[in-house]
Design goal:
Layout lengths: L2 H6 L14 H21 L5 E5 L5 E10 L2 E10 L6
Antiparallel strand pairs: 1-2, 2-3
Amino acid sequence: MDNDILQKIPVLTTKAGPRDKEWKQRLKEEYVAFIKLVELNQEDDNEWFQIEPNEEGTKWTGKCWHFHNYQKYEFKLQFEVIKLIK
């Protein structure tokens, strides 16, 4: 991803994990950033992933793909957002 696209994506400012009371605000920022990234990729005809969260926004699943030598390589992805204890 190049710097031009990164500069167009809103910066996340809320520092919160799923157990914090500010989590809903952080999750809202995450959604806004993902939506902007998807829009930018669609404008450039450069879609390479699909992802969606569970209701709480703590588990995300989807897929990403890459084309190489006229073949499409597709990968499942999943991750979980947790709060690390300091």
